Each structure stands twice: as C-alpha cells, then as structure tokens.
C-alpha cells in the first residue's frame, strides 16, 4: 500500500532524526566501525526507520536510512537493513509504548554483559534513569526472534529502559529514539562508574524506598515538562 503524504513527511523527519542520532553513538564513544544501531517507530504505522547494514558512520545520512515493516521486511531504502532489525521489530511489535530502540557494544556495559552480571543500583542516577539494577537478559543467537524475545521478557519485569543481553551487549528502549539513545549513553556511564567503584571496594546499595522515591521524582517531576 503506498504511503500517504503525511506518513511520507513523518518518515522523512524520522530518517533525519535517526541519522543524526547515530552521531551521538560515535560522539559518546559507544561504537566502533559499523557496530551499533538506532531505530524509530513511525507513529501510528506498522513501520520503523533503522540504520542500514554495514554502512560506515560518516556515510550515514537521511538518504541511507532504511524503512521496514515491523517484521523487518524492507519497505523503502537503497541498502539492506541492519542485521539487528529483527530484534528491533520484535520490540516494537510487543511493546507498544516503545518508540525508539538502540543497540551498542559499548565497552563497560558489554563487560557486565560478558559476566552476566546486572549493574547494581548503587547511585542516585541509576535509580533515576533505571529504577533499580540494570538487568541481564538471556544469551540469544542472532537471526531469529530470540534476541527480541529476550529483550522484551527482561524489560517487562523491570523499570529499566536498558537490558544487558548476556555475552552480547546493551539494548535500550525509550518513548522515542532520542530517549533510547540517552539510555544507551547513561548505561555505559553507570557501567563504567560502578566498575571503577568495584576496583576500590564494595559499592553501597541504595535502600528500595530511596530508589522508588528517586525514580518517581526523576520520571515525573524533574526536567522540562512541556517537552513531554
Ligand atoms: Zn550486537
């Protein structure tokens, strides 16, 4: 079915946004070579915009972005979609509140994934952003729905927008692609800080009631409300 002009405009906007957000992955040193990807749901449509497979970061523009349906089938674009498209699509199909998904192999978060260890909630910023520990998802092979299922099953039981997929790396979600990128930057930052704290001793856990208060304040009070 051809897309209406309004949908085409939205898709063009999202291609610009998603291409630009890939610049945040390199700026924040979350990716090397062509690893890592950002996607955005096209609101109200069974479509998403995602990075093309194997294209270098300095060649990513709105024109190289790929549009697929929510089963990962190519709808528009000159390149094949990212090899992680099936995982992104599975998340959009099963988590209607999610508008953006990000995946990286950022060093410190991936080091926790390699050990299969959740990042404990030992900092106010972990309580703020993740609402508790950053959970570990199952080991899953690339190529079918296993990664997507592992992400969704883990995030459904958690307030965290980030999951450390075992022996693989972090996937993050958000209400839009920018929020998911923010979670990807934050999860790497707290993974690094808690790693360093571990070298020097045992980080102090926060009390559950303080985690709940911090999370509630950050999610509902903090920031510029008119942007929501
Ligand atoms: Zn990966």
From TrEMBL:
GO annotation terms (biological process): pentose catabolic process
EC number: 5.1.3.4
Entries under SUPFAM superfamilies matching the protein: AraD/HMP-PK domain-like
GO CC annotations, alphabetized: cytosol
Cited Gene3D superfamilies: Class II aldolase/adducin N-terminal domain
Family: Belongs to the aldolase class II family. AraD/FucA subfamily.
Required co-factors: Zn(2+)
Reaction(s) this enzyme catalyzes, per UniProt: L-ribulose 5-phosphate = D-xylulose 5-phosphate
Matching NCBIfam families: PRK06557.1 (NF005123)
PANTHER family to which the protein is assigned, alphabetical: FUCULOSE PHOSPHATE ALDOLASE (PTHR22789), L-RIBULOSE-5-PHOSPHATE 4-EPIMERASE SGBE (PTHR22789:SF8)
Highest taxon, organism lineage: Bacteria
Protein name: L-ribulose-5-phosphate 4-epimerase
